[in-house]
Amino acid sequence: MENATGYRRSAGSARGETRRRELLATITDDVAENGLVDFSLRRAAKSAGTTHKVLLYHFESAEDLLRQVVFSLRERRIGNALTAVAASSASLTDRVRAAWVSLRDEESALRRVLDQAMGLAMYDPGRYAALGRGASQQYLPTLVSFCPPDWPEQRKFEVASMILATLRGFLVDLLTSADGDSAAAGFEALLRAVEREEAAP
Questions:
Q1: Annotated Gene Ontology MF terms (predicted)?
Q2: Looking at the domain covering 65-199, what would its CATH class be?
């Protein structure tokens, strides 16, 4: 099988999949440490100790590799949030509070890279739109799972969407403000809105 560049592609053998995962993990660690600026197949290959041709054997393109790297980093973020939520009470309000603390206090390198990914999606949507669309698709199921199980699915989706959009705005505020006071104040208002949702019939 060949990709768009004409290089032979891995056909999905168990051995090939194991190697693909190893490469992805190594490159993801590099991006987490060094960011997305100047990301390229050659830089990724260097960090993984291989060649760009080998990467094109396992990934469709530089964009495909970047998409999978960002997906992996978001999985780390979600895993951190779920760990924090597991230690909280069963209420949606407490789960949102625990998830926000995890997001607010996460390592700056992880936040920086995921912010850069959203920046790329906005700067060049023709090439990187998938980085932006993938975020909501990845985060929403987790937030839906925080909602009371007896809620109708549409209500879960609506409330989870509100929480996601608001928390993303707070992350931008943390990135662009010196003290984070407005994000903290806004978050308290969000918690009150979530409490009202929980109290509603």
A1: DNA binding
A2: mainly alpha
